[in-house]
Design brief:
- The protein is of the alpha/beta class.
- It has one domain.
- Helices cover 17% and strands 22% of the residues.
- It contains 4 helices and 13 strands.
- The protein has helices at residues 104-116, 147-155, 177-182, 191-206, and strands spanning 6-7, 20-22, 25-27, 52-58, 61-66, 73-75, 89-97, 128-131, 140-145, 167-169, 172-176, 241-242, 245-246.
- The strands form 4 sheets. Strands 1, 6, 7, 8, 9, 10 and 11 form a 7-stranded mixed sheet that branches. A two-stranded antiparallel sheet has the order 2-3.
- The protein is globular and about 45 Å long.
- The N and C termini lie far apart (41 Å).
- The relative contact order is 0.18.
Length: 255
């Protein structure tokens, strides 16, 4: 069995204008997209003297997850099969911040499942996806990072997450651990559905997609709707393709 490669990111030691290196992937270059501003009345900032607070391992099941971590990442081992029927292969790595109680290979399996689903972006027939272990082979990297670390990473690209949301920078999909562990209030679907949504939403930005709006009450939410902020009357949906066709809402302002 391949041994997971360690990718190091020490955010606290970076000069303000210098991107860090994580196994050859540059962190913090350029603008990006994603659910990147705080939802009203919500903030995952730690208000105690400690760097941990109570979280939820699943919706409705108490657990614990750290709000900050070492800023060092471990890459998932091995590679996945190529998923999709046609088009160029977009290769990605999965990196998980160390000491946060999440196994990199287990997280990678969730990402692989979301991106390899026939309702995901591969349904277009215009691209395929594959997870790889080597930074040199990857087109982009999916990070799972604590709220503090993800905030710092996103801020390097000029995005504000207030430790609450996830974001995407060029070549970097940065998923907030808090959202990974507990989704968002009143989402109306399982944690597994939210995880598939946040992966497909942020990777959608990497594939050039912009934000979209809810098409109407009771309709599925487009995957590029900012579902982290609320559904606006729509129903939670993690997929860009439904019934074999691209499902989208009207474009919204911004990225």
């Amino acid at each position: 069995m391949a041994v997971a490669a360690a990718a190091l990111l020490v955010l606290g030691a970076m000069p303000p204008s210098g991107p860090a290196q994580t196994g050859g992937v540059r962190v913090g270059q350029g603008a990006g997209g994603g659910d990147r501003n705080p939802a009203p009345g919500r903030d995952d900032r730690d208000t105690s003297a400690q760097d941990e607070q109570d979280g939820r391992g699943e919706q409705g099941r108490p657990g614990r997850w750290p709000t900050s971590g070492p800023g060092r990442f471990t890459a998932a081992a091995g590679e996945s099969p190529i998923q999709g029927a046609g088009g160029p292969v977009r290769r990605y790595r999965v990196l998980v911040e160390r000491d946060i109680g999440q196994d990199a290979d287990a997280v990678a399996a969730v990402v692989d499942e979301a991106l390899g689903d026939p309702r995901s972006w591969i349904a277009s027939g215009e691209l395929r996806v594959q997870r790889v272990a080597s930074a040199a082979d990857a087109d982009f990297t999916v990070y799972l990072a604590t709220p503090v670390t993800s905030e710092r990473m996103c801020a390097l690209g000029g995005l504000s997450t207030e430790r609450y949301t996830s974001c995407r920078l060029p070549g970097q999909v940065i998923i907030n651990l808090a959202r990974w562990m507990e989704a968002v209030p009143d989402y109306g679907a399982s944690l597994a559905v939210y995880r598939a949504y946040v992966v497909n939403h942020e990777v959608g930005h990497e594939f050039g997609e912009l934000h979209e709006s809810c098409p109407g009450p009771g309709e599925p939410a487009p995957v590029m709707q900012q579902q982290t902020y609320g559904l606006d009357g729509c129903v939670a949906n993690p997929w860009p393709y439904l019934d074999g066709a691209r499902y989208a809402g009207e474009p919204t302002a911004g990225t």
